[in-house]
Amino acid sequence: MTPAPRGPRGAGSDTRAEILAAAANVFIRDGYSASMRAVARAAHVDPALVRHWFGSKVELFVSSLRPAERDDPRLAALMATPVEGLGAAITDQFLRLWDDPVDGVRLRTVLRTAIAFDEVATAMRGVMFDDVLMQVLLAHDYEDEDARLRASLIASQMLGLAVARHVLGFATLEESSRERLVALYGPTLQRYLTEDLGPLA
Predict the structure, then answer these.
(1) Mean of the pLDDT values across residues 78-105?
(2) First to last CA, the chain
(3) Of 115, 111, 100, which Cα lies nearest the Cα of 62?
């Protein structure tokens, strides 16, 4: 009996997950210059199927390398943390992500690419700001405009730390323990969370 020829797989959720896994490997290896066709080849699917799931390369890039979805338990833990301990908790979770052997590689790839490509920077800002920090602050009953200012300040601290450690290679920060960095940065984030920041404009 002649086996049926193997063709492109269908558009099921398993295929989407396989495309994401292949894309992460391709982008980590080749950077943002990798094409959607290259991802399709790595995933053994038709390029049209990649575009079916992801309308643009930037969407595919960020989706494949993002460390967490909205239902991630780490996000839920931050949303449940009392406000008085939230600055330290955000700092700790952020550092755990960046130091993770899988998520850290993905985040460093996104960060370096975001510095060079505006569309990736915009997408990264959406993930970190809208999908993470704003969700955490709104869960603690901050008003929208107030939450946006506080989340922006927190993001500036955390992304600045990431650039210093993982792009510029500040040795002192690279070699500092997570506990030490939480002790240093946590109070600053806590001030952004709880102090009166004055008029918004």
Answers:
(1) 95
(2) 75
(3) 111
